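hey m, so remember when u said the C-alpha cells were messed up on ur end? i reran from scratch. heres the input so u can diff it against urs
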Amino acid sequence: ALLSVKEEHEASLRDILQYSLFKTKEELLAEIDAISSSSAKTGTRIIIWNLRRTSTASTEFDFDTDRYNIRIPLEVYEELSDPSQPSNRTTYVPESVFSLRAYCSILYLKPRMQVIVRGQKVKSQLIAKSLAWIRKDHYKPAFLVSFY
C-alpha cells in the first residue's frame, strides 16, 4: 500500500518517524495495517519500547512472569511508591496498581468495548459491584429545576 501525506501533515509525519521506533513510512504503515486487518477494523494499538533497566538489569516492566500480562515488578513498585508513606509490606495494594490486565478490567465504569492485552481478551469487571461503600449520585441539571 502507498502512504500519501498531505503537505500540511508532512511535519507531523517527520516527527513520528524521528521520535518513534518507526523509522520509515513503510514500517508505520505496517503498524496501521495491523490494526485495520483485525476483525473489528478499528482500535488502538499500544507499543511499549525503550524501557529503562532496574538495578538488577531487568526491565521496568515484567513481561515474563505471565505471558498474557504486563506487570510492574515489586522492586520497581517500591521505588515508585511515595517516600513520605511508611514502607509496610503488610499494607494491601490492589492488583490494579501493578498489573495492566487487572487495571484494564476495571478501567471503565460501564465497559462497552473489548480490551486485549498481549493477545488475550480482558474480562471486564463492574467495579461498582465490588466496592464496600457505594454512593449513588442522582444528577439533575439546574435548568430542569425551574420547571417543577
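this time it looks ok to me. DSSP finds five helices and two strands in the chain. if urs says something different then somethings off w ur setup not the seq
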